[in-house]
Design a protein that fits this description.
With about 230 residues, the protein is an all-alpha fold. The protein has helices at about 5-30, 65, 70-80, 120-125, 135-140, 145, 160-170. Helix 3 packs across helix 7 (about 160-170) and helix 5 (about 135-140) crosses helix 7.
Length: about 230
Amino acid sequence: MDSNEVNKLLGGFLGTCFIVFSIGLVSDGLFASPTPEKPGFAIEAQEPTEGGPAAPAAEAKPIADLLATANAEAGAAIFKKCQACHSGEKGGPNKVGPDLWDIVDRPVAEHEGFAYSAGMKDFSKGGQEHWTYDNLNHFITSPKKFVKGTAMGFAGLPKDEDRANVIAYLRTLSDNPKPLPQPGASAEAKPAEGAAPAKPAEGAAPAKPAEGAAPAKPAEGTAPAKPAAPAQ
């Protein structure tokens, strides 16, 4: 290889390097993104303090209060989601889940012809536990949380209104719908602190002294009672 060819190769190599270097400089100038002196805005998120007090959980509304304003027709529309696994007719077939006719106050895990999960049988306690309005409300909220080991795959209805409407509809699936619970019926009135005790009714006999208690002493200065004369 003569010197001319070597010079050509070196010249081509140097030319290529010059072109690449020039392109890099031009690209840096065109697409440079310098950091602004003052940012437009900053997003600051406050991290939760470890060990701080937890927010109080919202108190659950009693099912009796929810059923007072429930709409069974709206519940029938929601129940259509359940019909893939449950029937609601009298004498209806068992599907993935048991027939729900007359479900309110029915013994848990006792419907004839359906194979219940072990978790549901444990919850049933041999049929002692019933599907009360309260149990239905808790179960429909989150089946797996309320009955550990249940095979029911339904996630639950978190909205109070939806659960109340469905339970109101389930109540209608019966020849004799069970009475609705009275709102606030379980609350018992307690006497106010420091209140005087109730007086006995007029004409009531005074309380008898406790058995074995010493007789009352006569008032000071009073003559003692004379013994009764013996019978003749």
